[in-house]
Amino acid sequence: EIVRQLEEACATPTERLKQVAQAMAAEMHAGLLAADAGGSKLRMLPSFVDKLPTGDEEGLFYGLDLGGTNFRVLRVQLGGKERGIIEQESKEVPIPPHLMFGSSDELFDFIAIELADFAAKDCLIEGGRQREIGFTFSFPMRQSSVSTGVLVKWTKGFSIDETVGKDISVELTEAMERQHLDMRVAALVNPNIFPVDPPRTLVAFIHRILRFKMHCALEMQVNDAVGTLAGSRFYDKDVVLAVILGTGTNAAYVESSSAIPRCHGLQPQSGEMIFEKLISGMYLGELVRRVLLRLAEEAALFGDTVPSKLEEPFILTTPVVSAMNHDTTSNLGVVGSKLKEIFGVDGTSMDTRRMVVRICDAIAERAARLAAAGIAGVLLKQGRVGSDDGKKKAVVAVDGGLFEHYSKFRRCVKSTLRELLGEDDSESAVIKLANDGSSIGAALVAASHSHWPLMVR
Length: 457
Ligand code: BG6
Description:
It contains 16 helices and 13 strands. By secondary structure, the protein is α/β, with parallel strands linked by helices. β10 and β11 form a beta hairpin.
């Protein structure tokens, strides 16, 4: 009965998803209208990236990427239209968990040390040449230019109070100085846009913004989506939207400056918006654990006693849920061994294992269908569906561990998007995996905003 109730509560009929898509588009409007991104339930955070890579970029650039679970550093040699990417090298390291709760200096020193180690091969740096870096920092930031961003809050399990309210590029630059690295965070300032002091009034600020087409990222972590958009657009001009479905959820698209109103005060619609917690990799495991705990308490799923490990928040991770959900063995052996490994429950019956799979299915399917509704909502906001513009091809570049590794989830996102768009539009919007697109995207954004003339890049 409890599982049946869960499945009923998790049901996402097409009509309901269409409402979600419309609500998403409406919240995006409201978020754009809100004077302050914090004033709307859906944060619409301008990225200040005013040009996407075109393929003409040349020179040697670095990309850094502090995302969900890993830190990445990348170096790319760009050869312009003719030669494209001449050489690319990258390194990926898991973020040591203790740094997620330590001090700001410890975290940024870790980044700078990894960068210094990686850049040691670049002898030009030792020779004193200053390199430009694009930095993908996938947490909510309030930016006032392409090179400065103040951390609004940590997400995805990070919690370092002293960093909140600080400028992330300053934190990184200081750490690089401590490592004697002669590099600058360039991904960000476009001197043509903000040549002087920051604007003093909001009106002046908006006026400056209005002169440019901007990228807006919705929801939490801005930059990985912006990076993915930039990286994917380099290869495919039809990419109109980048979505991250990983530890966290967010999206970036190119917004027309005319969509940002000169007047303020419009309030977003009321109602709850907990969208990300139903979808993201960070939460899916925890949702399944909570259901299992209820079943253990109320229906003795694991016998007379509730396993104590089952009461530990976040002990069940999404990769484990994915492994159980993809178990193709006849005795659901993977499910059995995971239940033993994580919760210490031995000898589970086939019925119990089947029930666990059903729960994983219900939670993952709801997440995937809602994610597709979110994507449909952004396409709706962009006028890509249900209009003449919808006939143009739209490619949605998706990155993130959840989408990449949880194949049932990925297949369900794709099929639900087709279901939502209907026959007329289903061929015009295509979802593509953009694996690790944001590191290269960050380097490309640095390239397209470079301060240096070609000969010294
Ligand atoms: C990576 C991107 O591929 O995916 C990161 O390079 C992004 O920028 C990350 O944050 C998200 O995935 P996850 O699963 O690590 O949160």
